[in-house]
Amino acid sequence: MEWFLSFLVAFAVAIILTPIFIRKLREAGFVGHDVHKADRPSVPEMGGIPLAFGFIAGAFVSIPFITNQLIFLLGGILTILLAAFIGVCDDLFGIRQKTKAFLPAFAAIPLMALSAGEHFLVLPFFGLIDFGIFFPLILIPLGITGAANAYNMLAGYNGLEVGLGVIASFFLGVIGLVTGRPEVAVLMFALTGASLGLLRYNRYPARIFIGDVGTFTIGAAIATAAIIGNLETFAVLVLGPQILSGAITVAEIIRRKPIQKFATIENGKLVPPERTYVQTLYFLIQRITPLSEKQIVWVLWGIGILFGLLGLALAFEPFGIFFATTGF
């Protein structure tokens, strides 16, 4: 039950620290404007810091119970801390977008040095592929930076990122239990607890934003757990909303369309930018029907749950055997 202890400690630390950070960050002037509210209220940023503290606390209390994979667990925690630090630097200094896209790869150095995970992947239509030395040198940093940036692309609404973090980490944690990877369960339920603690203050109407420190921490944590536990394919599934939205956004950027990040508010509903602007998953949903901020978040949470259920189904027999042997 070490995973449950990790969950409780992470939740307690995050829910206790967050109101303290709300006050301190506001006093220090680290605030942004909620552009999806008519009055654009100022809201403290960098709420991902108490989330990171909660996660680390939850992960560390499990160390006495994890012996076989302890070195990889510690390396994973260090990777997540480095990702959080990169997020803090971006929140404070505003790193250029092109630079920020590659920086999380440096957070992967501990996992690369340990050559974490098995060097093969099960790919759809191809089955089992052994990547050898290319796994730690290329795929690990690619996985960390890809997950961190994909998570950062589906953001901007109250409770969206943190709620999706709760959903993705919960399902990957359960998959870790089902597949006999306790180190994955510990990391993911620590993230679930920390995210739930922060969600109390980040949900609509948000009293704190999570910032890049939050999105980078969540994305890197999910990728790290997947690499350590050899559950990369399941991580892709639980991160389905982020990957789908990221693919849409990247495709639009390649087409060199100008970027507009924010929807406008009309009669309490969010109206996406004109089609001459870059598309995102939530803009595409809003084109189907006008939704309020709370409604679009609930829809995206629902999509996240569907992806999580799909991943969980594939972890059970007979789907697990079919999935592992065919690559589907």
Q: What do you see in this structure?
A:
- This protein has 328 residues and is mainly alpha-helical.
- It has one domain.
- The protein is built from 15 helices and 6 strands.
- The protein has helices at 2-28, 48-60, 70-93, 97-100, 104-107, 109-114, 134-153, 160-178, 182-202, 211-229, 232-238, 240-254, 281-288, 293-315, 319-326; strands at 31-33, 42-44, 120-123, 127-130, 264-266, 269-271.
- Strands 1-2 form a two-stranded antiparallel ribbon. A two-stranded antiparallel ribbon has the order 3-4.
- Helix 2 packs antiparallel against helix 9 (182-202) and helix 10 runs antiparallel to helix 11.
- The longest helix is centred in the N-terminal third of the chain and has 27 residues, at 2-28.
- The protein is globular, with a radius of gyration of 19 Å.
- The protein starts with a helix and ends with a helix.
- Mean pLDDT is 87; it is low at 321-328.
Distance between the termini: 32 Å
Rg over alpha carbons: 19 Å
Unreliable segments of 5+ consecutive residues? 321-328
> Mean pLDDT, rounded to whole units?
87
What's the total count of β strands? 6
Strand residue percentage: 5-15%
Structural class: mainly alpha
Number of distinct helices: 15
Helix content: 55-70%
- Tally the structural domains: 1
